[in-house]
Design brief:
Layout: H1 2-27, H2 32-42, H3 54-66, H4 70-95, H5 98-110, H6 112-115, H7 124-145, H8 150-164, H9 171-181, H10 192-214
């Protein structure tokens, strides 16, 4: 009964904070960085000088759907915030209880960078947050279920992380450490699923490498 109650509280918190962010995003003018990424969306390319292309592609998709409006530009950030809260709740509930999950999300909403402008402005980090949490969730599922196909999902997610921000590369080291620290995870180094997942991530990132090759590795 307690679990059901806190799941209800979670959805009330999620919906109310999201409505508030949509309202603010609709009337707040675009910031300098947001205008920069809006230009990405208006000029599609395999990649760009300072960031990979996913931020531009995301904005372009919502502009095509809803028109050129500040809310359309910011929808990738708002949706990423929703996914981030759902993933925090799911992972915390998986490891502990729904009550702990609710308080984890409530605490997350009190962090200034998220509860304020950071949850509304569209920046690569907004999209990066739920993608990193998906990796953590998938790794927990691999450890709990021992299902090899989950490495393919890790590879796809890792590819999208690399398409979001170059610093996402350090997540490879997090995965490596996770597998080394837990003895029951080391067996995956001898199995094809882990390496095929890694190959998938490289293939997804390939357009960025091609763009940089054409432009003399200017991003790096």
């Amino acid at each position: 009964m307690n679990e059901k109650k806190y799941r209800k509280y979670f959805w009330i918190l999620l919906i109310s904070t999201t409505i508030l962010r949509i309202f603010i995003a609709s009337f707040l003018g675009l910031g300098v960085d947001e205008s920069h990424y809006f230009q990405y969306a208006m000029h599609p390319s395999l990649s760009y000088y300072d960031h990979p292309p996913l931020i531009g592609y995301s904005i372009r998709m919502f502009i095509n759907l809803f028109g050129k409006h500040s809310l359309s530009v910011r929808l990738p950030s708002i949706i990423s915030g929703v996914l981030t809260m759902i993933l925090i709740f799911k992972m915390t509930s998986l490891l502990y209880t729904a009550e702990t999950g609710f308080w984890a999300v409530a605490l997350f909403n009190l962090i200034p960078i998220f509860s304020g402008i950071g949850s509304i402005m569209v920046v690569p980090d907004s999209i990066l947050s739920p993608l990193c949490l998906i990796i953590i969730y998938l790794l927990l599922k691999v450890k709990k279920t021992d299902k090899g196909y989950l490495w393919y999902l890790c590879g796809i997610t890792m590819g999208f992380i690399l398409l979001t921000k170059y610093t996402g590369f350090i997540i490879y080291f997090s995965i490596l450490l996770f597998n080394l620290i837990f003895p029951d995870m080391r067996k995956w180094f001898r199995k094809k699923e882990l390496w095929l997942g890694f190959l998938l991530s490289v293939i997804i990132f390939l357009p960025v490498l091609i763009w940089n090759y054409i432009w003399h590795w200017i991003s790096f």
